[in-house]
Amino acid sequence: MLKVKDLVVNYGAIQAVKKVSFDVEQGEIVTLIGANGAGKSTLLHAISGLMRSTSGSITYLDHPIQKTAAPKIVRAGISQVPEGRHIFPGLSVQENLQMGAFLRRDRAQLAQTYQTVYNYFPILKKRRHQDAATLSGGEQQMLAMGRALMAHPKLMLLDEPSMGLAPIFINEIFDIIQAINQAGTTVLLIEQNAKQALKIADRGYVLASGQVKLSGTGAELLANPDVQKAYLGG
Amino acid sequence: MQTFGQQLINGLSLGSIYALLALGYTMVYGIIKLINFAHGDIYMLGAFWGYYSINYFHFNFILALLSAMLVCAVIGVVIEYFAYRPLRHSARITALITAIGVSFLLENGMSYLVGANARSFPQAIQVVTYHWLGLRISNVQILILGTACLLMVLLEVIIKKTKMGKAMRAVSVDPEAAQLVGINLNHTISFTFALGSAMAGAAGVLIGLYYNSIDPLMGMTPGIKAFVAAVIGGIGSVPGASVGGFIIGILETAVQAVGLSAYKDAVVYFVLIVILLVLPAGIFGKNVKEKV
């Protein structure tokens, strides 16, 4: 579904992504794990069209998208839940969700998508008229995910969804990521919480210093002694 | 008491013009963090469009107002496209200096094209003055206040209720996240310039009716005062711009009423300094730290 080949992305003067290749098949949960500064977020921004790659290619459903503008990528079915949530403060919860559906023209099915999002996150329905800025961190993460779902994506990119959340929220978020995947959305998950991510992932890639160091199924990587030492705390 | 009431009426009329102008400053600042110094000149162009459309096309007031709004909206979008868009990723000071350049271009371009002399604005509406409780209020004043309030309410509805208005707010708080949900930055910024410039165009026609005299440099001082109004209200805040506009208008007429006409501009800037010392973010501004 998504094929990244030899991708190079510069972040200012720094080469943040150095010839990275990986792919995501339809229906999978694929995770990219790695320490801070490994180039994970830069990679997602390149896929979403917010940053331009210097060389290499990104192919989505057999079309090259490395030069496509961000709105067109969303329209093609790739939605990103950015790191740090980036919900819109000053807009209500419901308006945030409405912005998630910004490009949708199929008004008839829209009500159903709201229902789906509210089913995943009942708290959002309860707080739908509240300013999004008043939500707790976990609720904001749910809103950011709900907002991405509103576009009815085929592929969802999640950047550090568990960052800064209480353990109870982390479990809930990971459960919902699995549920979203089971409902038919392919998931590319970036995480520092490698253990949780590998547990739910079909496959994973380990990124370090802007390069893929290891890859394998979630279970393989969990069992790999190098991964255990570097990312799972021994 | 009577003088007070009279000055309040005059101040509100003038203030509503400043408010309309201040809205453009605040919206553009909110979305691209640019102080659009050419905004006052859009107002001048609106006044000139009103002048020509009434004199030569024999438009009535409503038609002149609406067409001025439309023409100014287009001019605003064109200016953004050619002057500011190529500088989107440059330092903010670059765009700011460009805005001053655009302002000079419009002022001197109009002086060259139509002449620098002042001309009298056609009276599209017969002035009738009503006397009520010893106060004088003209139909033009009522019209200015009414039109300005109507436009402000309309703008508030657009920003709060429409999808494009919500997209404007989304872009102004987080342009990156806005792109991630598929909002087109360029379209949203163009839309913002169109709205702000339309308000300025309306203000230009209204001031023509009120003061009855227009010239190519007429946008300079009101432009700066409207900017002050936007800052006092809290730059980036739409209700703040309206309130700031009325404050400046009332203040200016009050200073004139007590016989200090020569200092009316100075007082406006003095109040600006005081407000910035007491409330650095303005009356409605949010005191948020800028992200690095």
UniProtKB/TrEMBL annotation, chain A:
It holds the Pfam family ABC_tran. Keywords: Amino-acid transport, ATP-binding, Nucleotide-binding, Transport. Residues 2-234 form the ABC transporter domain. It comes from the Bacteria. One of its GO terms (biological process) is L-amino acid transport. SUPFAM superfamilies: P-loop containing nucleoside triphosphate hydrolases. InterPro entries: AAA+_ATPase, ABC_branched_ATPase_LivF/BraG, ABC_transporter-like_ATP-bd, ABC_transporter-like_CS, BCAA_Transport_ATP-bd_LivF, P-loop_NTPase. Gene3D superfamilies: P-loop containing nucleotide triphosphate hydrolases (3.40.50.300). GO terms for molecular function: ATP binding; ATP hydrolysis activity; branched-chain amino acid transmembrane transporter activity. The keyword rRNA processing does not apply. Belongs to the ABC transporter superfamily. This is ABC transporter ATP-binding protein.
TrEMBL record, chain B:
Belongs to the binding-protein-dependent transport system permease family. LivHM subfamily. It is found in: Cell membrane. It comes from Lactiplantibacillus garii. One of its GO terms (cellular component) is plasma membrane. GO terms for biological process: D-alanine transmembrane transport; L-alanine transport; L-isoleucine import across plasma membrane. One of its GO terms (molecular function) is L-leucine transmembrane transporter activity. This is Branched-chain amino acid ABC transporter permease. It holds the Pfam family BPD_transp_2. It is a multi-pass membrane protein. Keywords: Amino-acid transport, Cell inner membrane, Cell membrane, Membrane, Transmembrane, Transmembrane helix, Transport. InterPro entries: ABC_transp_permease, BCAA_transport_permease. The chain crosses the membrane at residues 12-36, 56-83, 95-114, 140-159, 189-211, 226-254, 266-285.
